[in-house]
Amino acid sequence: MKVIDKIALVLIIIGAINWGLIGLFSFDLVATIFGDMTIISRIIYGLVGISGLWGIKLLFDD
Questions:
Q1: Which residue from 40, 23, 16 is spatially nearest to 32, judged by alpha carbons?
Q2: What are the backbone angles phi and psi of residue 38, rounded to the nearest 5°?
Q3: Prediction pTM value
Q4: Residue 62 binned pLDDT confidence (cut-offs 50, 70, 90)
Q5: Which end of the chain is more exposed for a tag (fewer CB within 10 A), N or C?
Q6: Interhelix angle for 3-25 vs 39-60, to 10°?
Q7: How far is CA 12 from the centre of its chain?
Q8: Rounded to an integer, what distance in angstroms lies between the CA atom of residue 50 and that of residue 62?
Q9: pLDDT tier at 26 (50, 70, 90 boundaries)?
Q10: What's 1's DSSP letter?
């Protein structure tokens, strides 16, 4: 597995945990740590979204 694949997988896991916390407890961990829609939190959300798209590629790799 390439380094970029591992980074994408870690970001996908972070995003999944964050969405689980939002769904179960209405608690947004990223917003709590970095602020509500600050530039840093928006970058993190963007990276998680791009990683999700990259994860589609991981489904089809051997």
A1: 40
A2: -75, 170
A3: 0.87
A4: confident
A5: C
A6: 120
A7: 4
A8: 21
A9: very high
A10: -
Q: How many CB atoms lie within 10 A of CB 15?
A: 19
Three-state secondary structure readout of 19-44: HHHHHHHCCCHHHHHHCCCCHHHHHH
Structure tokens at 51: 């990683």
DSSP letter at 14? H
Sequence-separated (6 or more) residues with CB below 8 Å from residue 49: 15
Ordered by start, the domain boundaries in the chain are 26-62
Paired tokens of 59: 């489904």
Distance CA 45, CA 19 (A): 11
Distance CA 43, CA 23 (A): 21
- In single-letter form, the type of residue at position 35 comes to G
